[in-house]
Design goal:
6 helices, 5-stranded antiparallel beta sheet, 7-stranded mixed beta sheet, single chain, Rossmann fold
């Protein structure tokens, strides 16, 4: 069994403020360690379930966050941003049996995680076929494009609930719950234990039940916080600019949606 893991930080247990997620801030060192520990727990759960290969994408900010010395010997790590439209899923392909997500957070405009956002701070809302999308929405669609089911996600409670809307059979671990700028969270040790156990169980079942069916065609709508960003993106080939802060793009293939996002967000 071959497993791909996309690791973010804003859904890590205990994280409450942007200072804890940004490289260079004193608090970042502590939460970088918690991010790594949760990722390692997912790797260990995958190994216990029979995974023979585990590939991890460091998918937060600089994409250089995970503490490499903590990673198990059987893990291959993808760091940095290649510029490929797969972005947070770069390195996945059709040879994988499952996709997992650790440290994930809810979408821009929600109040269930103090660090909620979608891709960048310039995005107010991002919609796929009329539904407001999170980074998980985009990444689960990316995995499905390769025929890879999305089997497990850890992150804030609302993100876990929304993950099940797209993939009802996905297993989740809610590490925290947001209350405006505050959080109520598992302890880091409790999160690690829960993730390790849940990943093993999630991978020890019929994985294809976690493969969402892709639509026949797609409409991307990006609403920005600033009209300047929309104007800049309006020059992407085939894109529409129906309102000062809005861009719209349609495609039959989800990769074309990913490619548009790569250049306009």
């Amino acid at each position: 069994m071959k497993v791909f893991i996309s690791a973010d930080i804003e859904g890590t247990a205990g994280i409450t403020n942007w200072d804890e997620a940004r490289k260079g801030n004193p608090d970042y060192t502590e939460f970088r360690e918690y991010m790594t520990d949760e990722l390692v727990a997912a790797c260990e759960g995958a190994k216990a379930a029979g995974a023979t290969e585990v590939v991890v994408k460091d998918a937060h900010s600089s994409a250089r966050n995970l503490i490499l010395s903590k990673l198990p010997h059987y893990v291959r790590i993808v760091r940095g941003w290649s510029g490929h439209p797969d972005a947070m899923m770069f390195g996945i392909d059709g040879s994988f049996d499952a996709a997992l997500y650790t440290g994930y957070h809810n979408k821009a405009g929600t109040d269930t995680n103090p660090l909620a956002h979608t891709l960048t701070g310039t995005v107010s809302r991002l919609l796929i076929n009329g539904e407001v999308a999170s980074e998980y929405t985009l990444n689960a669609h990316c995995a499905a494009r390769y025929g890879v089911p999305s089997v497990f996600l850890s992150g804030d409670a609302a993100m876990c609930a929304e993950a099940k809307v797209l993939v009802p059979e996905i297993a989740t671990v809610a590490t925290s719950e947001g209350f405006g700028p505050a959080t109520s969270s598992l302890s880091p040790l409790a999160a690690v234990k829960a993730i390790r156990e849940a990943v093993e169980a999630a991978l020890s079942r019929d994985l294809l039940k976690c493969l969402p069916k892709l639509a026949d065609n797609f409409e991307l709508v990006v609403e920005y916080t600033n009209p300047v960003e929309a104007y800049r993106g309006s020059w992407y080939p085939g894109i529409e600019h129906p309102a000062p802060r809005t861009l719209r793009f349609k495609a039959d293939n989800f990769f074309d949606i990913q490619r548009a996002i790569r250049f306009v967000v």
